[in-house]
């Protein structure tokens, strides 16, 4: 069972969950129900705490856990950050140390340099925190065609930071495809093998905010000096720097300095460097010094492997046909896949019901609806305009040129077939025509399908474009 009650004392119920993701999920979807139940059973002072397994341990060790109170607002240091960043679980994680009741904060060292991650504390190199999430590793980063190059480049960098030609290493790909996981795995690997190296993971957004804060506090030099201490700098989501000239300038400076000193730089972006509009050319040209590798959507087999790995990691049991169904149906991205998995496990646990195909179909309903919703009028208009080689704006205008009329009628026909828009609304999207025009178009297309073989062929081709969505 993934949710285990572990402790009830002084009106505090502690439940153990297998991962931070699970905690997030419960807090997001079930917090009200849980609160109600706690109040009902334990009275108004009743509280809920989570014990999150951050490290499975081995057969001799208990899993290491991290305790958090319910409602993310109350968990102050965790509140603003993403779960991955906030629940940093490396051995240096201050929150984990705190929970474990270990030694107090380190004594400030002689230097008065400010650490942008902990505004009030002076830097002590021994206590520099990597901001890594220890659960992102290479071991649980499933390899597939979609990520082979990026993964092996990442592994090479992790084994020999700063000395391969993959410097900088730039990983790009769409959301939820595993960029953050991969670059954190690099960081964790280096930390595990070279404990004296200062690895720092930071999102470009956090970097920007720290920089702005340092400007405000008149401490830009401290900011720069801090970053110059880093041996392996991992900057996540660099596209965030677009249009932020001052921050880019600072990063450029840090980049050059680190690179020259043989330090490793790893970056991610949600698009290829050539599409990073608003990033200075001199910065972009630096990215080309090393290796740029992309992440693609995983294929079916890789999705199966990812689900199976996740099940094993979290101790979840799901019938094979359900796993297969999930791998077939959720082909958007890995985060979505994990989301569905977690929601199934949570439902099964809370409703005391085994996971079955019916439940999986139910859980997938909203995702599939989202995908279907992508066949909207815009998409249909664009596809038809392209297919018939007519300009999109003419398709939506009043012109009566023959080629345009046909393309427009076909687009209306598909809008009626694939969307839930009323005839009136469809007319509105095609230059403000009335519903009788739409009816007429649909009728004309239907008639042509019956009478004209080559036209019918065109419709079949077009329909494929919408069905595949
Ligand atoms: P991105 O940063 O590209 O948006 P993430 O790195 O946050 O994506 O990945 C989303 C989720 O998918 C994470 O929980 C991650 O662990 C998981 N994931 C992505 N790719 C893989 C993979 N190849 N193997 C296992 N888990 C993966
Ligand atoms: Mg990310």
UniProtKB/TrEMBL annotation:
Sites where the protein binds ATP: 176, 178-180
InterPro entries in the record: AAA+_ATPase, Chromosome_initiator_DnaA, Chromosome_initiator_DnaA-like, Chromosome_initiator_DnaA_CS, DnaA_C, DnaA_dom, DnaA_N_sf, P-loop_NTPase
Gene Ontology annotations of biological process type: DNA replication initiation; regulation of DNA replication
Molecular function in Gene Ontology: ATP binding; DNA replication origin binding; lipid binding
SUPFAM superfamilies xrefs: P-loop containing nucleoside triphosphate hydrolases, TrpR-like
Region (Domain IV, binds dsDNA): 349-469
Coiled-coil region list: none
Region (Domain I, interacts with DnaA modulators): 1-103
Keyword terms of this UniProt record: ATP-binding, Cytoplasm, DNA replication, DNA-binding, Lipid-binding, Nucleotide-binding
AAA+ ATPase domain span: 165-295
UniProt KW DNA-binding keyword: yes
Source taxon at top rank: Bacteria
Primary residence: cytoplasm
Residue ranges of domain Chromosomal replication initiator DnaA C-terminal in the record: 376-445
A GO cellular component entry from the record: cytoplasm
Subcellular location: Cytoplasm
Xref: CDD domains: AAA (cd00009), Bac_DnaA_C (cd06571)
Complex formation: Oligomerizes as a right-handed, spiral filament on DNA at oriC.
HAMAP family: DnaA_bact
Domain notes for this protein: Domain I is involved in oligomerization and binding regulators, domain II is flexibile and of varying length in different bacteria, domain III forms the AAA+ region, while domain IV binds dsDNA.
Record PANTHER family: CHROMOSOMAL REPLICATION INITIATOR PROTEIN DNAA (PTHR30050)
Family: Belongs to the DnaA family.
Function in brief: Plays an essential role in the initiation and regulation of chromosomal replication. ATP-DnaA binds to the origin of replication (oriC) to initiate formation of the DNA replication initiation complex once per cell cycle. Binds the DnaA box (a 9 base pair repeat at the origin) and separates the double-stranded (ds)DNA. Forms a right-handed helical filament on oriC DNA; dsDNA binds to the exterior of the filament while single-stranded (ss)DNA is stabiized in the filament's interior.
Identification of the protein by name: Chromosomal replication initiator protein DnaA
Lineage, broadest ranks: Bacteria, Pseudomonadati, Bacteroidota, Cytophagia, Cytophagales
Chain's gene name: dnaA
């Amino acid at each position: 069972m993934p949710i285990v009650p572990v402790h009830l004392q002084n009106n505090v119920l502690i439940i153990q969950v297998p991962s931070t993701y699970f905690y997030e999920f419960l807090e997001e979807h079930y917090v009200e129900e849980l609160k109600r139940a706690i109040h009902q059973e334990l009275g108004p002072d009743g509280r809920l705490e989570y014990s999150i397994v951050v490290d499975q341990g081995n057969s001799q060790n208990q899993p290491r856990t991290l305790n958090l109170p319910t409602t993310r607002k109350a968990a102050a240091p965790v509140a603003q950050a993403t779960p991955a960043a906030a629940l940093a679980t490396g051995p240096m994680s201050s929150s984990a140390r705190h929970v474990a009741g270990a030694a107090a904060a380190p004594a400030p060292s002689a230097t008065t340099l400010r650490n942008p991650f902990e505004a009030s504390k002076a830097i002590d190199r021994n206590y520099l925190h990597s901001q890594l999430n220890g659960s992102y590793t290479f071991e649980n980063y499933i390899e597939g065609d979609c990520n082979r190059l990026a993964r092996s480049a990442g592994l090479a960098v992790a084994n020999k930071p700063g000395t391969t030609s993959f410097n900088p290493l730039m990983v790009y790909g769409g959301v939820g495809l595993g960029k953050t996981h991969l670059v954190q795995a690099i960081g964790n690997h280096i930390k595990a093998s070279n404990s004296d190296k200062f690895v720092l993971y930071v999102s470009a957004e956090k970097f920007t905010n720290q920089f702005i804060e340092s400007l405000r506090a008149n401490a830009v030099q401290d900011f720069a000096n801090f970053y110059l201490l880093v041996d392996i700098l991992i900057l996540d989501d660099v596209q965030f720097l677009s249009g932020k000239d001052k921050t880019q300038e600072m990063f450029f400076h840090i980049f050059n300095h680190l690179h020259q000193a043989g330090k490793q730089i790893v970056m991610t972006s949600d698009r290829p460097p050539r599409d990073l509009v608003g990033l200075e050319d001199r910065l972009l040209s630096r990215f080309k010094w090393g290796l740029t590798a992309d992440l693609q959507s995983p294929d079916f087999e890789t999705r199966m492997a990812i689900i199976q790995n996740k099940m094993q990691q979290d101790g979840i049991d799901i019938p094979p046909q359900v796993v297969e169904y999930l791998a077939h149906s959720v082909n958007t991205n890995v985060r979505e896949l994990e989301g569905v998995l977690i929601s199934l496990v949570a439902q099964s646990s809370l409703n005391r019901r085994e996971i079955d195909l019916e439940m999986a179909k139910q859980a997938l309903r909203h995702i599939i609806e989202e995908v279907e919703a992508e066949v909207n009028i815009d998409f249909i208009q664009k596809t038809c305009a392209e297919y018939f080689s007519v300009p999109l704006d003419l398709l939506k205008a009043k012109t009566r040129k023959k080629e345009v009329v046909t393309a427009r009628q076909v687009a209306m026909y598909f809008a009626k077939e694939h969307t839930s828009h009323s005839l009136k609304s469809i007319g509105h999207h095609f230059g403000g025509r009335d519903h009788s025009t739409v009816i007429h178009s649909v009728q004309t297309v239907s008639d042509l399908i019956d009478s004209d073989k080559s036209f019918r062929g065109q419709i079949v081709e077009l329909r494929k474009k919408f069905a595949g969505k």
